[in-house]
Protein 1
Amino acid sequence: MLVESPNNSTQKLVLMDTIQRLEVEYHFKNDIETSIQNIFKESQQSKNDDDLYVVALRFRLVRQQRHYICDISAMESVSPNLRRIYKVLIEFLNEIEDELKKEGKADRVYYAKVEVIKLA
């Protein structure tokens, strides 16, 4: 049933979740991995209008198999006001970095600043 049903069907997601909760997933390991890879590929290509439960379930099952989902297109919908907040945050991180340079610990801020810059 795992392989035969459509990739994003709610029934398939619920079935995989139930199998994992019953802790018998080792019997279906290959089927689950194949199904989750297909779900991951399909989720990158399409926009789904599922309810919150289905989206959360899909997200959890895919993340458990170490597939990381990132919707970079969501940044396009961020308001200009929020972008200003990111700029202020970057300036604040620069100030923190200057203070930590005095103590020889500036490298700790670098990675946070890089991630914030990616968001802006």
Note: The radius of gyration is 21 Å.
Protein 2
Amino acid sequence: MKKQSIISRPKTLLWLAALIAAVMLTTDASAQQKFLANLSGLQQVPATRSTGKGVAVVTLNADETQATISVNYSGLSSAVTAIHIHGNAAPGQNAAAIFTVEDAATGTINRTFNLTRMQVGALRSQRLYFDIHTKIFPDGEIRGQIKRASMFADEDGDGRDDYITYRQGDNTFYSLLSLGDRVQTRSFGETTPGFLNGSFIGDFDGDGLADPVRFRVNATSGLITWLIYQTDTNTVRSVDWGNFATDFVAVGDYDGDAKQDVAVFRISEGIWYIIESSTGAPRYEYFGAPGDASVPGDYDKDGKTDAAVTRDIDGKKHWFIKQSSNGQVRVEQWGLPSDTTFGFGPSLIDFDGDGAQDLVVQRNIDGAAYFYVRRSSDNSFFVEQWGLATDIVFIGIDHDGDGKSDIEAIRPINGQNVWFSRLSSTGESRAVVWGSASDQ
């Protein structure tokens, strides 16, 4: 078994054929990275008591010169007078309007804007926000920070990942929200005899809010049942997909619709089993060999998760990446066989903020955890020591909302979990006590 963090079909021959076909493929790339904004009154500065809501999708073109926006809103107090995109401002700060959406009186809007390089930089660093103004709230009724669609632990929609833990004893997710330092709880499902339980978080409905997910595993058959709490409708979706005995969870946005897809990687076969959210149809990706470790991510910056695996060859860790933009296979060498990789998904592991997945491994030396990172922007690398070898580590978390990955180590101390974060925006170290030591 390959080391990874967190938690019958043709096999090798078909995989080899698929690999050869992929290398020969020359499809043109069509990079269309997506960003989301969940609009609410709470994000206004100062906050409003509006019950209105909205979701905006921003699609950046391949040349990074234009952005297409789609905005849907409802429940506002009065007629809309203007919709703006503002910047540069972090959550909790105000800035001037840089784009005005014309003819914005209807609840569904689609527009395209030209972008400068500085504006693209502000978009990637999550320093732009939507603001909808109304007659009753002329200074703005609802607002939403624009963030990368792959953020997986942002439950309040402000563009910063929150602290979330799952307590199996009462089937409850406990969240410490960054917006207003509020506490939120969500309970759903029941504990059933003969089943194991696990948890996950990701935005499966595309509303810009993290959806808590419970895994119920049949202790006899190994079948995984996904219970997804959809924050857009406050309903629970149940999906039977994957087997605990043979599969790794490999959540990602494989179809590029800004929604996470239910997916697993079967390590005994080297096959990806995916349910695309855009169609609801199953998809089988023959990429990898038995025993490979899955490391899905958007390595080619096209807004779609790439199937990717690592394999130990001649004392080195090799990365095989099937780029969704053109179908070609990219091979990289990074890390040692004893290193740990991060393949649970769905968050983008992006330390340089360029929108592409970086190569990262964890190496434990003398009881300390070291992270070896190779940046996608220039192939340079750095080594960061953070936490202990025994800590639970998250890579790809973004607590400060700057569009770059933070490193987080969770350590049980005196019966409680302490979250130690290294924030990328300032280099600041932060320690937050949240959850019990037995929480997931």
Note: The radius of gyration is 21 Å.
Protein 3
Amino acid sequence: MRRRLSFLLFVLCAALAAAPMPAAAQSMEPSLVIARVQAMPGNIGAAARIFAWMGIPPLFGGAQTRATPDVTATPDVTDATAIIDGMQAYYDKAKNYSAAFDQKQLEINGIERVSNGVVWFKKPGKMRWDYQVGTDDERYLISDGTTFWSWEPAFQQYCSQDLGTSQLPTALTFLAGEGDIKQDFDFKLLESTNDKRYRVELTPKVPSSAYSVVEFELSKKTYRVEVVVIVDALGNVNTLNFKDAQINASDMADDYFVFEPPANAVKLCE
């Protein structure tokens, strides 16, 4: 059980890291923005217990192949534990995953920011988020399972984090396959506004500054997570909608999860 959770726990961490910068960050000097990114892995580690447990898989351009057919849920399930178990079973069968995503961040001051991108995930522990490609806000979050990189082409600056020696105890815990969402979170079934989805709320048993509540909206047919809502301790709301999800693609090479900085790139943090 614990070994399985390590696959599902890598996604929430990246979702928080990929979140659009708050208004105050938009006017920062590049070095300060990168410093902000450097601080993100702390949130990443804290958030990882939920999001990777949820297991968001990768999406490559072009056709994808499904090695395993979707599981069909019958009939509606009314127990939150059974839904969580169904979600776990869906992602357990995935060797890799990909999806396009739309993201909306609503800050407590009323400012709303939207973004989009594509995410890839591959067992064990590999992930890549291509964020706002082709815009001034373009950036990449990449991990090969041992190193985490953040890269912002507009500034030609990047950060890297050694996951083996970093001060991220939570991240180390889930990467070691020791996380257990049922031990760390209370969860309950909520009323859904979409008759094709279940809606489950997760609340951390130990308060966290990275999130106070997380909601999953899952397909009733497959138990695949389609929407994630993250509310932090200040009340900021980060919503991610995943679409065109694919699992078990045949062309997802390991080198896609490694970052090689350009010759003129500046490394600002480690």
Note: The longest helix spans residues 30-54.
